[in-house]
Amino acid sequence: MSFKTLSKVFLCLIISFQPYYFTHSQPIQLDLEPEHRPQIRSSYSKETCITLFCPQDFNPENGKVEVSDSVGIPIGNGTVEDFEKAITEIIKNYGIEKLIGTYVFIAGADINSERELKLKHKEVLKKHNLENHIKIKVISMQKEEIHGLTLKSTKAILQRVKLWFPSIKRDFEKPDKNEVIAGLVTTAVIETGSIYYLFQTLPEDDAIITSTLHAVILSAYAVYTKFMINWLLRPGTNMVEGFLKQLSMSLPFILNYNIFGQFTPIVKYLESHTIEVTMLAFPNEVIEFASTQSVTMMLQTLFYYVVITRVIGSWANNQQGLQRSKDARVYRKIAEMPVLAMDAIIIAIASGVGAEQLISLGPIELNDGHAMLLTLTALSSSLYKIGLNSSFEVYNWLNHRATPKVLDFFRDQMAI
User: Fold this and answer.
1) Is the entire prediction scored with pTM above 0.85?
2) Distance CA 111, CA 263 (A)
């Protein structure tokens, strides 16, 4: 038999086995180890979509069985076919009980096909009588590129503007109890320096109002940090959108210091001028505020965007595993303490409360607070990039090895 004939026979064999090869895929291997699970809201991109299964896990902290909305087990690439194979394999290998009371996240789906995709996945659940036992949650995003100014692109632009805002469905994660406690405690510690500074430089009433509102805003941010970080770092967000998001979060602090920090002078002005005079002067005051505080807002936004969000926030959001991701949410509060304590004082100075002018460029004034804020941003971003991973290992050792041993020792002593 010639070589040419052998080649034809071999080719025919390949073609004949091709349907079997593509229709008989290997069984899906699920990695149920909690510490191997990726975080749901940082595991997709504009180019990818992922299906994640969130089973029930025992929580040793409260003795309850819970479902995490933070990490999940990858079971497919967002297609209904992958999902059906995974459900079948789980039932076959672990029993249908493994699926009761669980979540399935489809992260990175096209927003234009979100509804259709969810319905198709629910149809799969109906085949197995699981439609009332598994919650399907879709985290969608805009996939299409925007070109020109056509009717279609205008609709896409409006859709993108809507997606800019925080979303419960896309960004929210339940605050962890330890995270909330750590957030509130660190906020109280951080505010000590800034409150002392305000009471030294402002009238007592102004200091009380300003420091109280500042603490309230920071407390809300501390409790819902993960929600806001997910929003700021949501996949598909470009740098301009990210900076504008961060700017919107800095605005309450700037307004607080410039309105309530000047509360007594404002009241005196209103008492000595008529409403007509006040209204006429208001546009000029807004322009002056914008010109004097625009630098402060931009530098404060840059500080939070670079240090708190892009460095510390990204690090916490990329920690893999159920326990490690929880620990990162607590540890980031501790890690932020030194730099936020310094920022709380510096932002008060930069906002004009006791500031010393350095440079004047027309209506724009640069003070010593601005210089300190820029220096803090540059130094802290570099130091945190170097130190976070190694210091987190120290925290893990203290939290999971040293501290339990110390507590066990004291329990034994009390029992004696």
Assistant:
1) no
2) 46
